[in-house]
Amino acid sequence: MANYLDPVVHFIHSRFASALGGRPPGLDEPLFSSGVIDSFGVLELIAFLEDTYQVTIDTAKHELGEFDSVNKIGTLVSRLRETV
Fold it and tell me: pLDDT tens for residues 25-45?
């Protein structure tokens, strides 16, 4: 699944580099609960995921915790792609 998540890691690293101290995020590193990504950033992340993985994310149906790490994002995207 690592190659599948490379675009997510790259997006988060490039968009939130200062909050990450210039390093890429760890696959299980908390993103929202640690403050790396804020409420505006989650909207950017959702738009990126929808465009990159051709999924639709209804924010009313998902909890913020589903976006709290690269691995959790991968699980969410995989689940959404199965329903397409």
Answer: 999 999 998 999 998 999 999
Q: What is the CATH number of the domain that holds 69?
A: 1.10.1200.10
Among 14, 59, 56, residue whose Cα is nearest residue 37:
14
- Give the number of C-alpha atoms closer than 13 A to the C-alpha of residue 51, restricted to the C-beta side: 9
pTM of the model: 0.91
Q: Which amino acid is at 64?
A: L
| Overall domain count for the chain | 1
Provide the domain limits for residue 40. Answer: 2-82
Would the CA dihedral through 45, 51, 55, 61 be positive or negative? positive
